[in-house]
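This section describes the prediction task in plain terms. A model, or a person checking by hand, is given the sequence of a single protein chain and must write out its three-dimensional structure as a string of tokens. No templates, partner chains or ligands are provided. The sample shown here is typical of the held-out split.
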Amino acid sequence: MARQTKLVAHPLLVATLALLLALSASIAHAQHPAQRVAIATRSLARGTVLRAADFEYRDTTARGPIASARVDTGWVTRSTIAAGEVLREPAVQPPIVVSANQTVDLEWQDVNVRLIIRGTATRNASLGDRVIVRTDAGRRIEGTVIAPGRVRID
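The expected answer:
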């Protein structure tokens, strides 16, 4: 006759295991907090100017931080993007407002004085980007793009 053994778990062991499971779940949640990211609502071809219907913001969890910028309407896709894909740079970027070799106004302002000179941008740039401008005198001055065709010296 076969002898059956009955497995009896000690109450302290059961409580310890339950505590460890709860602790590991809270650590996993703390390592992967929810992040708000822009998600494509449809497939987007390269060069598409984003409209409000092209993306939506959703909360998601990921193993690591998602470097997703605050995408806005008017941004441009630099590659093909599938529906449901996270919109992040460099796949999407703000529109270019200063083109390479474009003549721009380079401005500097103090409390009572405002100086504006013309120069040539050395590369493409979006709002808020840093760009070097070559003046007619041959000087290279770095500034921040503040509007189409306008660069501010900081």
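For orientation: The mean pLDDT is 84.
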